[in-house]
Design a protein that fits this description.
This is ABC transporter ATP-binding protein. The protein has 265 residues and is an alpha/beta fold. It folds into two domains: 1-69 and 198-265, Rossmann fold, CATH 3.40.50.300; 75-164, Rossmann fold (3-Layer(aba) Sandwich), CATH 3.40.50. 32% of the residues lie in helices and 27% in strands. It is built from nine helices and twelve strands. The longest helix is centred in the C-terminal third of the chain and has 17 residues, at 178-194. The termini are far apart.
Length: 265
Amino acid sequence: MSLVNISIDDLFFTYPLSDENPFTLKINELKIYDADFISLIGPNGCGKSTLLKIITRLLKPQKGEIKVFDKSLNKISQKELAKYISYVPQTNYSVFPYSVYEIVMMGRFHNLSLMGFETSEDKEIVKSALNEMQVYHLAKKGIKELSGGEAQRVFIARAIAQQSKIILLDEPTSHLDLEHQILIFNKLIELNSKDNKTIITVSHDLNLVANFSRRIVLLKDGMIKLDGDKSVLLNKENIKKYFNVDAEIINNTDDKFNIVINPNI
């Protein structure tokens, strides 16, 4: 039986967007297993990003229990949590003009000595992560000097350098061209298959989901509507039901297929 990395039970969270129309996220049960590759999908405003922020403690739910490796999320120190989970948000802002190298080295903070000095091993890990994301040549540049796509790859490199067991990514390819979208997802596949990393990514690109992830969790109206193997659940009927568009599934195999959206809505 697979090890449960994250378990969520009876979760309730609400944003008071307005008195008449608050947003609520309700999850009765969700288990994320060792070496899962999950894509969180669903229409805008369904709670995908909110769920990641709750798991990373950026938001606090009003109710519910979350466990990470069978430990209560509320009882895990920030330094320990960094060993378990790395997070790449949808948009990264840096108030200070840190260099690319400094940003990626921040992924090693949980591993630094009491004096805060990085070791030769830390430096090699950072160098490797920069190379993997093809941003090593930018190492001395300030993060504010980069394009949105370059900066996104830098923050993914930081998550890789963190070497956590679980990586959460909120729309990691939103600022990237097609070449670098494939680069990112191929790297995630490698981390998942070779290093047994648990990957959870939010994506609106159903073709990336269809060709790279294995499991989908579809949210709508703040609730989980579908949870299971993408090759079974990602079909034209469900796309029509939950996204309100017509689609055809082509080149269907056990693990890869393409989704063609009919533009005549």
